[in-house]
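W.,

You were right to be curious about this one. When I first looked at the sequence I had no strong expectations either way, so I just let the prediction run and decided to look at it fresh. Below is the sequence, 244 residues in total, followed by the output.
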Amino acid sequence: MSEPTSRRGFIGVVAAGLGGVVLAPGIRLIEIAQAGTPQAGAKPGVRWGMLIDATKCAPGCDACVQACRHENGLPADPKPTDAQWVRKIEIKDVRSGRTASAPVMCQHCANPPCVDVCPTGASFKRADGIVLVDRHSCIGCRYCMMACPYKARSFVHEPVDEQRPEVPRGKGCVEGCTLCVHRLDAGQKMTACAEACAKAGHKAIVFGDLNDAHSEIAWRVRELGAAQLRPDLGLDSGVRYHGL
């Protein structure tokens, strides 16, 4: 039997075994993948998020970026093709000349487009609002990267050496900010970027439970006011900004 014929036969067997995946592409694959999605530590009713105060974010400071790289085993001096989970942006209002600086990362949307387009369910949202990628299910198609309006995901092009065991990474997978989920699941209460920002003396990043009316982040959102990036998209992002 020729190779093309064998391949067609194999695909037919797989499709039949997945219960009609040919009739509804991706649907069964997503259901199967999500059935085994890791949810350890996720607490329903909690909505983890961050408030970034651009009035306190110092231009030129990259303490949050460096802390993220160190915490998650990313290169300290990345090449253009290396993954980057947090990036600093500088904004200037052309009318007033006012400038602002702020970090941008995965916004951990309540309605994440990256999850909607993933054909295998590798992109998923936990019960506590954290959006993650299961590297065991990720096939590297990069649909999620194209769907993300914040350009917050990266593709791992090369083998990853000296990984941190609590933050597994792998060549051929897509990845992005996890809100330091490994810290949260271990009982810690602060992300590496927020911790580094506080140590640098800026305290521009507040992390916490947006659903807890008594939490610092909820109080600051009420008192200071906060906006989402691209609220017109209706994604209900978990990362909010003040002062942009």
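Here's what jumped out at me. The first strand starts at residue 48 and ends at 53. And, maybe more interesting for your project: Residues 166 and 182 are 6 Å apart (CA to CA).

Coffee later to discuss?

I.
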